[in-house]
Specification:
globular; mainly alpha
């Protein structure tokens, strides 16, 4: 098929920040059909995020169990999608943090919530909040691996190499993730040091 017909299909199933960046570059392509397809795909992606946020917000306002977590995750997905400008992304990170914190108050001890709160705090530039959230993830939970990766990033970015060495030592004690795991290359990066 012509290259312009591929854009909507590839982005509908995999709307990553990299795909959004590529689609934005296509908006300046010389071919009208490429620009049109890129614009259409970006619109579909934006509408999908907007719909998920609106639906989760409506459910959260109705008091539905688990809706605050869904709202936080939807806001986080939009903030990190590559679609919003910096100020709007910061707003949605704040909304994600607020919704996830409210969900955590409803479900204390939820390791996935702690992991996501750590991710939001890390992205928002709050190292203390990120360390606290990642630190609450229990070592026996499936999220512990990702929490350790978050701590490695946090301590590396904060130039705390002593804490980083401890995190890497703990990471090496875990079984390596399968080769097709999304964080396999990150694991290899840290454990090869």
């Amino acid at each position: 098929p012509p290259r312009s017909t591929l854009f909507p299909y590839t982005t509908l199933f995999r709307s990553t920040p990299e795909a959004v960046k590529l689609l934005r570059l296509c908006l300046t392509d010389a071919a009208l059909e490429v620009r049109y397809s890129a614009h259409s795909a970006l619109t579909v992606i934006e509408e999908g995020h907007t719909r998920r946020i609106a639906e989760a917000k409506e459910r959260a306002e109705a008091g539905e169990k688990g809706a605050r977590k869904d709202l936080g995750l939807a806001c986080l997905a939009y903030a990190t999608s590559g679609l919003p400008e910096e100020a709007l992304a910061a707003h949605y990170l704040g909304a994600a943090r607020e919704a996830l914190a409210a969900a955590q108050a409803e479900s204390p001890g939820d390791a996935d919530l702690d992991l996501r709160l750590g991710e939001v705090a890390l992205r928002a530039g709050d190292p203390a909040g990120a360390a606290a959230a990642f630190g609450r993830v229990p070592p026996d939970s499936p999220q512990f691996f990702e929490a350790l990766l978050g701590l490695c990033r946090l301590h590396f970015e904060g130039d705390d190499y002593g804490a980083l060495a401890q995190d890497v030592a703990r990471l090496r004690q875990l079984p390596p993730p399968p080769a097709d795991h999304p964080n396999h290359s990150v694991y290899r990066f840290w454990t090869a040091q």
